[in-house]
Every structure is written in structure tokens, then in C-alpha cells.
Design a protein that fits this description.
Layout: E1 9-11, E2 14-18, H1 24-33, H2 35-39, H3 60-72, E3 77-83, E4 86-97, E5 103-110, H4 119-135, E6 139-144, H5 149-158, E7 161-172, E8 175-185, H6 193-204
Parallel strand pairs: 5-6
Antiparallel strand pairs: 1-2, 2-3, 3-4, 4-5, 6-8, 7-8
Helix pairs in contact: 4-5
């Protein structure tokens, strides 16, 4: 049983909540409309070794069952991202490891129509604060292709440290791709990441 799941997290117009089977229509509509926008950054399955069949792409319901199973086992927190009640993306805290490491990684995608509005930095801050302040994790990583400037801007705005390059780290868009590693530890944001993000947003707002 995962004591940190299920959970709903909210900041203003942005909400994170568990992905559900009944999100299928909304999730597929957003994914289909953003296919070209997301294709370069989507994980793919490498070719099967000679003599073995390739793994079929899971259906939406198979994906949700897997994510819910991992969440129940305490290894993952699979959220959808809502903006003003509309599904606009997905954020997953994965690779949750306890013991001497107490770490996890975060991955996300968002509808191109609302990219750049501060939704995803808010969602990441919500997830990180839940991991640090509620679950007691110590370190969060985000691994991003160097070419993915919009995704890199999300973590750079939030003050994640760039730690270096992992060559041919993940199979993305049909090949093994290099990824930059960004990280944050609990000691760097003792009051949480959201207060830092609120201060950044307030500095950027025009003064009347």
C-alpha cells in the first residue's frame, strides 16, 4: 500500500490528480492533437533481439492498469495535469526508491496550446513538494533530451541543477538518445519548491 497515493494536488488553476480509466477520451484527444508536437520526445520500444517478437504498444487501459499497479506498490505516482478542470497533460513520478537513496524521477508532457503559460512548472513544483514534504524523498531527477528546450526551460525556471549528460540514455523517437540530467535535493528547498516558484512568478508580473 502506498501511503502517498492516491492524492490530489492543487495550486490556483492547476491540479494534479491520479490518471483514471475514464480519462481515456480526453487523454487520447489531447495526445492525438499533439502527436507531431510530442513525437520527438516520446519514449519508444527498441527493436526486439533476433528471433523475438516486438512488444506491442499498450492500449490506454493497459497503460492505466500498469500505472495504477505501480502506484499501489509505491513505485510511481501517475498524474494527469488539469488546467481549469481540463486535461492538458500528464506528469509521472517514477523510479521511486527508498532505503539509502530515497529518490525518484519526474517526466511530463503538456498540450502545445497551453505550453508557456506556467502550467507545467506549477505541476512539477506541486509534485516535488509532495515528494519532499509529504513522502520524505530526498532527491528528484528530471532527464531531458538536450534538444528539448521547452522542457528544459521548465526545470531551469524552478532552479533544478544541470548535472551532466547521460549518453544514449533512453530509447526515444526510434533510437537511443542522449539526455541531460537535472536534479534537486530536499535541502535545496527546505520550505518547498512552490514558494520559490510563486516568488519567480510574482517578479515576472507587470506592475500596474
Amino acid at each position: 500500500m502506498n501511503a502517498g497515493w492516491p492524492v490530489d494536488l492543487r495550486e490556483g488553476d492547476v491540479e494534479l490528480r491520479p490518471i483514471r480509466a475514464r480519462d481515456q477520451r480526453s487523454w487520447q484527444e489531447v495526445s492525438r492533437r499533439n502527436r507531431d508536437w510530442l513525437r520527438r520526445w516520446e519514449a519508444t520500444v527498441p527493436p526486439a533481439p533476433a528471433g523475438r517478437s516486438a512488444m506491442p504498444r499498450p492500449t490506454y487501459r493497459q497503460m492505466v492498469r500498469y500505472l495504477r499497479g505501480e502506484a499501489g506498490a509505491g513505485r510511481m505516482l501517475p498524474f494527469v495535469v488539469l488546467h481549469r478542470g481540463t486535461l492538458v497533460g500528464q506528469l509521472t513520478v517514477g523510479g521511486i526508491t527508498w532505503g539509502s537513496m530515497c529518490s525518484a524521477n519526474v517526466g511530463y508532457w503538456i498540450d502545445e496550446d497551453v505550453a508557456g503559460l506556467g502550467i507545467m512548472p506549477t505541476a512539477v513544483a506541486l509534485a516535488v513538494d509532495h515528494c519532499f514534504l509529504d513522502l520524505g524523498l530526498h532527491r528528484i531527477e528530471v532527464c531531458i533530451r538536450p534538444e528539448n528546450r521547452p522542457s528544459r526551460r521548465v526545470v531551469e525556471k524552478l532552479g533544478f541543477r544541470e548535472e551532466g549528460l547521460r549518453p544514449r540514455y533512453l530509447h526515444i523517437d526510434g533510437d537511443w538518445r542522449d539526455h541531460l540530467v537535472y536534479a534537486l535535493t530536499a535541502e535545496e528547498v527546505p520550505e518547498g519548491l512552490m514558494p520559490r516558484w510563486r516568488a519567480i512568478r510574482n517578479r515576472r508580473r507587470p506592475v500596474n
